[in-house]
Amino acid sequence: MTTSVLPAAGVLGVLGGMGPLASAEFLRTLYAGEWHGPEQSRPRVLLDSDPAFPDRTEAIRQGRAREMTERLEDRLSQLLERGADQVVVVCFTAHHFLPLVDPVLRGRVVSLVETTAAELAGATGRFLMLSTDGSRRARIFESQPGWDAVAHRVVRPGEDDQARVHRLIYRMKRYGPLPHEALPEVERLMQRHDCTGVVLGCTEFHLVSRDLTERYGPDRTVDALRTLAVRFSAGLPAPQRLVSSLPTSATR
User: Averaged over 213-241, what is the pLDDT?
Assistant: First the structure.
């Protein structure tokens, strides 16, 4: 397990393209935040948007860990060589493969999963988890140290509802935010499962994060990308610790 923080004047690397609209929206969120200085005070960001990454859910299903790991290592190395101090991998499902990545590279990655767990630890109530089939199958959140402390307040949709969530995610990958579809679906699921909040456990939901936050409030909308954007734009450190042990479902 490693720990590091992004200095206020550091360079942020963003490994995106999984999908490309989500990583582009993360940059918009980062730069659209409240600033108290001139334009020149905003952080430098290096974006590598690579939509050619294999589908992460399919890679998990097909056992293509080596292919994903090698591609992650290549892209992370390039971002760090170009000057990034820390890197945000804008895909929760891709986090399944990070424990397989070289520890030196892995130690420079800011974990969306850990950020989510930390946000939930400071919240109250029941939260609906919105994630891909791949994240659910690989138990990416459940493998996070400390998740047991918040797991009893996180509700997973049933099998049929999970299939609807997964289809919605892929529609947003292709068509963009789709708030007219996403918001009613999230509301329906929250009511069905008696939840007061929602966890955006797939970065595609960052596309409708502003809409969800306006409806439920920031304390009831757990969005790791929004949290990191706020911290980076304020020059605050982002705690980062990734598990060095290998999840039981990931193999080379």
Answer: 84
